[in-house]
């Protein structure tokens, strides 16, 4: 199990939090995704999923991921 | 047909816009509800619906309405 934290741009409210968590949870290999609105971040616990795939899932629903 | 514009506090994104419009559109007597995020407002075209009922529908889903 790995943990990846990404900085997400554009999440403003609980609807955004739910959308991002849901988009990540739908990916094969993702166990949990938890957004922190105050931190503008999402922490993903996952098996073998590339960071690229996580970023893609977030961008697909209209948010940006800041470079590490 | 009447038109009522209310100042809504707490709408931050397109999810919020959709939630508020949907809550108002569900009311009997409401024809259209259109949120302007830049203006923090919603304009409702309606038949006989009290302003109190409109405010109540907005507050029920977690937003506040500023006094006129």
Kindly describe this structure.
2 copies of one chain form a homodimer. Chain A has 68 residues and is α+β, with helices and mostly antiparallel strands. The first copy, chain A, is built from 2 helices and 4 strands, in the order βαββαβ. The first copy, chain A, has a 4-stranded antiparallel β-sheet, covered by helices on one side. Chain A is globular. The interface between A and B is small, with 6 and 6 residues. Chains A, B: InterPro entries: Cu-bd, Heavy-metal-associated_CS, HMA_dom, HMA_dom_sf. Chains A, B: Residues 2-66 form the HMA domain.
Describe the secondary-structure layout:
2 copies of one chain form a homodimer.
Chain A: E1 2-9, H1 14-25, E2 30-36, E3 41-46, H2 51-60, E4 64-65
Antiparallel strand pairs in A: 1-3, 1-4, 2-3
Organism (chains A, B): Exiguobacterium oxidotolerans
Protein name (chains A, B): Copper insertion chaperone and transporter component
Keywords (chains A, B): Copper, Metal-binding
Compact description:
Chain A has 68 residues and is an alpha+beta fold.
